[in-house]
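This section describes the prediction task in plain terms. A model, or a person checking by hand, is given the sequence of a single protein chain and must write out its three-dimensional structure as a string of C-alpha cells. No templates, partner chains or ligands are provided. The sample shown here is typical of the held-out split.
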Amino acid sequence: MGKYVITKSVKNGKYHFNLCASNKEPILTSQQYMAKKGAMKGIRSVMKNAPIAPIEDQTVEKVVKEKNPKFELYTGKDGKFYFRLVAANGQPIGRSEGYNEKATAKNGIKSVKKNAESEVETAEE
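The expected answer:
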C-alpha cells in the first residue's frame, strides 16, 4: 500500500502532501495549504474522488469532456504527459510528475486510484 506524506516547508511554513506508491515514489502532489488541516482535507478529497474519477484525455483531437470528479490527462509545454485530479467542485486536488510516455501517465492514474485509501504520515522538509 502507498502512503500520504504531509510536509511543512521551512521556507514558507505552508503544508503540502504527496501520495506515494508502495515503492515510495510520489504519484500525486498537492497544492500548498496554510495549515495542516487544509492538507488533511485535500487527502480526504483524494480518498473520496480518485476511486470514482474517469480520465478526460486532453491529448487527443476530440476530447470527451467528463464530469467532475475526473483525472485530466494532458501534455505539458515540455512535451511530457501529466495528469491532475479535479474534485467534484472543479478544484484541482493534486498533479503528477511529468511522464515521457502516455501509457506511463495512465499507469500513474491507476496507481493513485489503487493507493487512494493509504495511511498518512507527517514529515519535516
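For orientation: Strands lie at 3-8, 15-20, 26-30, 55-57, 70-75, 81-86, 92-95, 119-124.
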